[in-house]
Write a structure and sequence with these properties.
This protein is α+β, with helices and mostly antiparallel strands. The protein is 21% helix and 31% strand.
Length: 618
Amino acid sequence: MIKNTAEIKILGDTYAGFYSCGLTMLGSDTMFRFEDRQETEDTNELRSKDGLVILAKTKKSPHSDAYELTTSFTNGSEADVTLEMMTSFLLPNIKADKIHRILSFWSAEGRVKTDVLADLNMEHAWNNNAYRVEKFGNVGSMPVRKYFPFIALEDSESGTFTAVQLYSPASWQIELVVRRGDVVTLAGGIADRDFGQWTKKILPGETFTAPKAVLATGNSLEEVCDELVKAQHPDISPVDDSMGIVFNEYCATWGNPTIDNLKKVADKIAGKGIQYLVMDSGWYSDCGDWWDYRGDWSINKKRFPNGLKELTDYIRSKGMIPGIWFEPEVASPKAAEFNETEHFVKKDGKPLTVGCVRFWDTEDPWVKDFLYNNVIKLLKDNNFGYVKIDYNDTMGVGCDGPDGPGENLRKKVLGTQEFLQRMKKEIPGLVIENCSSGGHRLEPSFMEIVSQSSFSDAHEIKSLPIIAANLHRVIRPEQSQIWAVLRAKDDDARLFYSMCGTFFGRMGMSGDIYDLSDHQWQLVDEGMAFYHEIAPIIKDGYTSRILCTARYYNEPKGCQLVERTLAGKTLFVFHRFADSCTFEDFAKEQGVDISKYKILKTYGKADRDFSACAILAE
């Protein structure tokens, strides 16, 4: 078993040297303070003579074969101590020659990036002293931007993998260090002072605990990813435990919902087994565009003259749970709330403004009351059972406060998580969808609070099935809401392509569904029935293969075949892109022996480029 250990860096102590300053804070003189080191089966404890204590624990996950790694620092001295680096995990002497990271940009989440360590110039120096460092992470309040907080190390010689997923909702870092021999030290945690302007003052008697991490080992990338994902333990609403289907009207009204068009949607989808009808942005403020008036949560009386209770009553009368969209953490310039400058996050003494928003200070009691009265109370008073929480920009490196900008930022994001928890406490059974311009908050500590998450904003583009499949490596598919946007112009191939994409997670739908023909509705109904049958595999299965030959997201070429299994049954989902081939030819090319399976049911027809099918087999 690989055991967690830890390092800290205390402000004022000497940095490591050997050309490492500015690259890493590991190896500093701070660690020479800790002369007393005690080790048990699952802990590493380090003590200094003046009472400083670092405690690193390794605990078997109760949910998978992974291990939970935690680190705490206690200031038992008589003086303040200011940290400028603290690891959540530190794993020395890992033999590896490759690393696998998972990239993320808006509508381009989940791409695997594999590097040979030698290509990164990470071979040890001839004198075994000079540092080789590869450091990456995220700075800001969107923890999944550029990279997911994940890494896997591969040792090609032994065929083994070591992977870590970090539970950090704000700025984070992961670093690899090579010094002596062909082994790697792997460390990660909150983005340090160099990387994320983080410092934290610890008063005498105080303990600070770093964000946790989860460690998995195995014989393939898919195996370790499965262990990490299954170690996530989301608090899913009991209302949302049956893989229910969501219909979100955004791609029908484009931010212009009204009581009439939503009743029209409800009438069309009633009785089709859809659990939620969600009204997206644009229901608030009488003044104009939804984007410009975020923060003004007064009900738009032009669109809903009798208020929102008329809508929720109507949706419930049709057998569905009503949902609503909010972006509660921000205010836009045209909302009157934008001028409440005292209550926004500050940077250099002024309200932090990014693009066209300011960010509420979630530690401010006034803001807590504002969010209760304008969000939680509105949900209660109008009998909503589902809320989509959006978040469409990042605060960047940090903000004003008692500690370093990075720590101040982290506490604001923790305030957001506390707000989500308060929503659940105030409204038992509430289903919360986590959305941040699609996928910018697909991070484990956020995922464990919510029932579902938007997988991406890639709702109608060709790369949707690629993104949706790749996310199996980092989030639970049962939480990954994937939209099939349905259009009257869609032919059979396009409908199959869209519907099969939802089989990688939680089925969501949108689009001009009231304009679909009877034939189109038949294909959609068949797709929903197939989804309900495979839902247990989506929820609890193991994704053993993600085989994709497409290199580009915008113009994908080739094919993708995903295999997920549970209790002797296997789900194959096959998508064809440009210049593609048949399912049989692709499976043979990729070494998948289809002949050993008995086909139980199929959906779709992958008979040309940009078509798809799904197969349930045993």
